[in-house]
Amino acid sequence: MLLAPSVLIVTLFIIVPILDSICKSFTDYKIINIIKGIAPQWNSFANYIKLFESGTLTASVGVTFTFVITTTLLSLVIGMTLALILNSDIKGARFFRSVMMTPWVVPTVISALVWIWIYQPQYGLFRYVVNVLTFGRVSDFAMLNSSSTALIGVIIVALWKQIPLMTLLLLAGLQNVPSDILEAAQLDGANGAVGFFKITVPYMSSVIKTSVSMIIIDNFKQFPLFWQMTSGGPNGSTTTLAVLSYKEAFINHNFGSGAAVTTIWMLIMIVFVFLYNKLFPKADIE
């Protein structure tokens, strides 16, 4: 009885907006169409061809994948390291668990502003750290003003926000690994790295897979951090698909081109997540 209304709701609120965006990506739909009330004209693949010929789409795909892969891998490695530390009987572990979620709960825009001040080349904290580490040779390092370091600066902030959640998710998975299995493995000589990769990781496979999937999706749709910190610059070095879509639609006022970027963006994210799930299926624990 409830199936038909549920399907209708899903269609209206999920599928229809996506189909609308895809349809607009094949039209010449600009701000003048809205101002004068003119219907957008069908232009086939013209928006896609223009984006590919300009090189902006290819560059933004590269930046997006660099950001997603780098941030996800570092979040997993650092998060797992912290989870292993917190899972041990170290002093202050409980206090650290209670406060480490602070970066994650801070709004992304506020986080971006805080780190812009930290990166500020004249009086920012990062400037003093670099000055000390280089023994005074670099006194005005501008992380976000250079094409070679701007993306690194955004990645650091993304890690600052994401690692706490990743750590707590992995910590919950570690605490669910049966202690008797670990003790038996230690008696059989499976200590250190062997026990971790042969016992702990397989038991945590579902937690790891879910956590990484969440981070991948979050990184693919990351927009506020990039726009607030760099607006896609300098020289397009931090222009992801999310930023390019916004620029095309609301800066260049070309809604058809912006919809084309959004369509490609959605397809890439779906394919990437699909391949990830195929490459890393749920492990069977014997």
Can you put this structure into words, describing what you see?
71% of the residues lie in helices and 1% in strands. The chain is built from 15 helices and two strands. The radius of gyration is 23 Å and the shape is globular.
Task: Give a summary of the structure in a few sentences.
The protein is mainly α.
List the main descriptive attributes of the protein structure presented here.
single chain; two-stranded antiparallel sheet; 286 residues; mainly alpha; MetI-like fold; globular; 15 helices; 2 strands
* Domains, number: 1
Q: Which CATH C-level class is it? A: Mainly Alpha
Percent range for β-strand residues: under 5%
The total count of helices amounts to 15
Instruction: Find the CATH topology.
Output: MetI-like fold
Strand arrangement, major sheet: 1-2
Largest sheet geometry:
2 strands, antiparallel
Runs in which pLDDT lies below 50 for 5 or more consecutive residues are none
User: What is Rg?
Assistant: 23 Å
CATH homologous superfamily annotation:
MetI-like
Provide the structure class.
mainly alpha
Cα shape: globular
What is the overall pLDDT average? 87
Q: Which CATH architecture?
A: Orthogonal Bundle
Distance between the termini: 41 Å
Strand elements, count: 2
Q: What pattern of helices and strands is seen along the backbone?
A: HEHEHHHHHHHHHHHHH
In helices, the fraction of residues equals over 70%
